[in-house]
């Protein structure tokens, strides 16, 4: 018989670890972006080094299984406070507590913060964080607990906001002094427009509620600069320092340089397609909705006639049953029938469905604008004559006409194009102006580069709009490729006009590379014979036969000085001067022109004088 192996030693119980004081504390700095100083530290607990219980998750999972989670929280706080005082760290100490532990802390008999005072720390230096795992069954009864903490001098924070139990409900009802945004929303925020919009919404509410925001999980410079430029005041993450038993007493050089960086962030743009410009179709449906009475299916033709006579502008009437449309009667066709001899006498008392369209075009209010646009291009064109029915969750809401449908879709397309070009999906005029305003408002030096394509119109005329669109998309790809997305902004003004706002130091090399790559690549859009000929034959604007070379890229740039540029600069003036530089670039062999600051001022003044001298 084989001898039995000696039994493996069981992991120590949590109570034993607490009794042996076998817990240790580490601290992670929290940075104030305004002055780059360390605002305070979050105290975090660790189990015995090199054991399965070293990680806090394993430690608290075991405590929960043993039924002593609150005891572990109190021991962890005691350990963190003691270590914090021994280190003689400056600033505040952030401590994590569950809702149950906070209740016990506030209800201590000898003092509201007996645990803290016992360790000799001023409660005003303490921030109590409600952990995301906590659930509060009765928020109303928890409010006095928060009041007790504040009365004792401590602050209250909502931890890991945006996940688990850290909800808007708690924020509104508990009114925390500090809200820590969960790292999920901060990681890669520089390139994720949805995370950016979510954090911006949190920021708006923080401004309204008076809470201070701390962005958790900052791990790189790009995310830091986006968060900084959004106006969030504090941050925490590996970029500033990992949790350590001997935490840094000052911000690292890399972090300080990033906080003081002269360039501003390029905020990630949410692409506004037709559906995102009107997510539920509500804006388009509201534009074309005609509030009109409907008739029940039991109504007679005489009832229809009476309704049309009372409402001479009504183009149609819907027939409904239980609130749902079942048919549509067009005014013109109905009245034409009634004009026939004896028609009213023969059919007046008969059901109105006899002359109704039993399968009308129906548009639900939630229909996207893309779906409405597809309806315009479909083979079923009955809506042009009959109009259509608009429903709200299947119930009759009103009528619409073909003319209103075309107008509504067109207006939404135009509005969407102001935010994002529908061909390239690059930011349109409104985001372009907004980014220039941010650059000017932050005194950030930059280069505004206006991009245009030489000989594009003749190419478009020769090869057609579809091929012309492919050239424009190729230009957008080339320009995007030379941009640093964290520093450089690319917008599509319209047609073959683009605008680049460079903050990269090597901006000129990027511009010249874009011109070279585009000029080489654009030739592939020509037929072999035209490539051999070096271009195409066409007509100039006066109708004269002309030979046009290949489509090429021209870029005119203007330098906008930081701190002290002309005070009358605006986004429109900058775009105008860059456009003038572009016109010069179109006549240069290199396709590139740079206008310096003094020349741009002269050009602006010249434009102003010309405008004033022009007759009204």
UniProtKB/TrEMBL annotation:
<dbReference type="Pfam" id="PF00990">
    <property type="entry name" value="GGDEF"/>
</dbReference>
<feature type="domain" description="GGDEF">
    <location>
        <begin position="444"/>
        <end position="600"/>
    </location>
</feature>
<dbReference type="InterPro" id="IPR029787">
    <property type="entry name" value="Nucleotide_cyclase"/>
</dbReference>
<dbReference type="GO" id="GO:0071111">
    <property type="term" value="F:cyclic-guanylate-specific phosphodiesterase activity"/>
</dbReference>
<dbReference type="InterPro" id="IPR043128">
    <property type="entry name" value="Rev_trsase/Diguanyl_cyclase"/>
</dbReference>
<protein>
    <submittedName>
        <fullName>Diguanylate cyclase</fullName>
    </submittedName>
</protein>
<dbReference type="InterPro" id="IPR035919">
    <property type="entry name" value="EAL_sf"/>
</dbReference>
<dbReference type="InterPro" id="IPR050706">
    <property type="entry name" value="Cyclic-di-GMP_PDE-like"/>
</dbReference>
<dbReference type="InterPro" id="IPR046342">
    <property type="entry name" value="CBS_dom_sf"/>
</dbReference>
<dbReference type="InterPro" id="IPR001633">
    <property type="entry name" value="EAL_dom"/>
</dbReference>
<dbReference type="Pfam" id="PF00563">
    <property type="entry name" value="EAL"/>
</dbReference>
<feature type="domain" description="EAL">
    <location>
        <begin position="7"/>
        <end position="257"/>
    </location>
</feature>
<dbReference type="InterPro" id="IPR000160">
    <property type="entry name" value="GGDEF_dom"/>
</dbReference>
